[in-house]
Amino acid sequence: VWCELAWLGGERAEAGVLIEIEDDRFATVTAGVPTPSPTDAERLDGLVLPGFTDAHSHTFHRALRGRTHSGRGTFWTWREQMYALAARLDPDTYRALATATFAESLLAGVTTVGEFHYLHHGAGGQRYEDPNEMAHALTAGANDAGVRLTLLDTCYLRGGFDQPLDEVQRRFADADADDWGSRVDVLKDTDGCRVGAAIHSVRAVDSEAIAAVSRWAAQRGAPVHAHVSEQPAENEACLAATGRTPIQLLAGAGAMSPRFTAVHATHLTDIDISLLGTTGSCACLCPTTERDLADGIGPAARLAVEGASIALGSDSRAVVDHFEEARAVELDERLSTLQRGCLQPAQLLGAATAGGAWSLGWYGAGRIAPGAVADLVVVDLATVRLAGTDASSAVAAVTFAATAADVRHVMVGGRWLVQDSVHTSIDVPAALATTIGALWP
Ligand SMILES: [Zn+2]
Predict the structure, then answer these.
(1) pLDDT tens digits, one per residue of 361-411
(2) How large is the angle between the packed helices 207-220 and 177-185, nearest 10 degrees?
């Protein structure tokens, strides 16, 4: 393919970029090729980006959109509404919803999703005949939609520091970390799906179990994610129960490494930020969800300065738009610090692409570079939002003004799966309407 403009990682777009693709990977990338050459190269107008990575997703939350945003309350009252939906899902509805939801992600340019999966069992915690049936529903949905998946199979053991599981939480839980490990051991990596681990939170997993999950991930070389310090109440409960912050507890249990991702990382101490940086861990920020749930603003710029990598997640899928997630990191930072330019557009796009790919165990992906998987997003610069931009302004214009609606074509592994803003095999709005409608009779 020959790109009018392509983003290769710098602050500006490169003009005339010829990309050769062999099988599912980029073979060569050459900038400064003035006209489509060879003449049979497919011409791509607009700005070409690497595929986006959504490093923190709960597919089933998509069915809450529009139903939980108004009214008063907190994260904790929202959680009651989310639990009510979780209680109604079974493998068939979960798969149908996952297919439609992952297809929505693909239309938005997301080619890789990290699904933080904890809805494992049937009503009351009853195991399905295959105890990974709900995981298989997700992998089938990702396969049908055409996205790469990292299945972050989540360990969940208790309702809180001194709380037993409630009725809905029994569906999330295994008996202990060994029980979790033996269930997850049978899940294997495939071409389109990697298996990783997740610690739901320090509320739901004690420190011995955190250590056991971390050892499992280390043995497999797999990523391990955890919800961390999304809410002040979580920090207060953790300090009261253990004398440590959640990050310090995770560090003490050996969870932190370049394969570790702290999701949210919103309410952190200076020591927490330093620990994330010195261990080379990742912070996955989910700003559209954090603003929806009144969670707060994570210290993105300080995390980056201290050496943590940054990824982005749609989390509750209140919005599925990685342009919006990326610019929200910088714009929220501006509001909280009264300073502009805390993170540059290339850093924000990097978080939306390579940062997330690393955090999900797709090492080296999320870049337009030889050897990387051939995932591309073509952004239409002729839309009303982006018209008038040129090579020098395209990267900043796309970062600060594009929306998911400006995504024109999407390639996954060398194949176009979105063309002219339409999924090549799924009527996505109809699939969403049908599957979500069935959950709200
Ligand atoms: Zn989450």
Answers:
(1) 999 999 999 999 999 999 999 999 999 999 999 999 999 999 999 999 999
(2) 20
67: left (phi over 0), alpha (psi -120 to 50) or beta: alpha
If DSSP codes are grouped into helix, strand and coil, which group holds residue 235?
Answer: helix
Query: 263 C-alpha to center of ligand 1: Å?
Result: 7
This model's pTM is above 0.90 = yes
User: What distance in Å separates the CA atoms of residue 233 and residue 429, rounded to the nearest whole number?
Assistant: 37
Q: Report which of 290, 281, 283, 285 is spatially closest to residue 313, judged by C-alpha positions.
A: 285
pLDDT at 304 over 80: yes
Q: Provide CB contacts within 8 A for 98, sequence distance 6+.
A: 59, 60, 115, 137, 138, 140, 141, 142, 145
Cis peptide before 38 (omega within 30 of 0): yes
- How far, in Å, from the CA of 31 to the mean position of ligand 1? 39
* Tokens coding 238: 């953790």
Q: Which residues are catalytic?
A: 264, 315
Residue 317 Cα to ligand 1 middle (Å) = 10
239-273 confidence digits (pLDDT tens) = 999 999 999 999 999 999 999 999 999 999 999 99
**Residue type for position 321:** D
Q: How far is the CA of 274 from the centre of ligand 1 (A)?
A: 23
CB 172 within 8 A of CB 126: no
Those residues whose C-beta lies under 8 Å from the C-beta of residue 326, and which sit 6 or more positions away, are 312, 348, 349, 351, 352, 399
Average pLDDT, integer, range 143-162: 97
Q: For the CA atoms of 85, 89, 95, 99, what is the dihedral angle to 10 degrees?
A: -10
How far does residue 201's CA lie from ligand 1's centre (Å)? 10
- The side-by-side arrangement of strands in the sheet containing 2-6 is 25-30, 14-22, 2-6, 43-50, 376-379, 407-412, 415-419, 422-423
CB atoms within 10 A of CB 125: 17
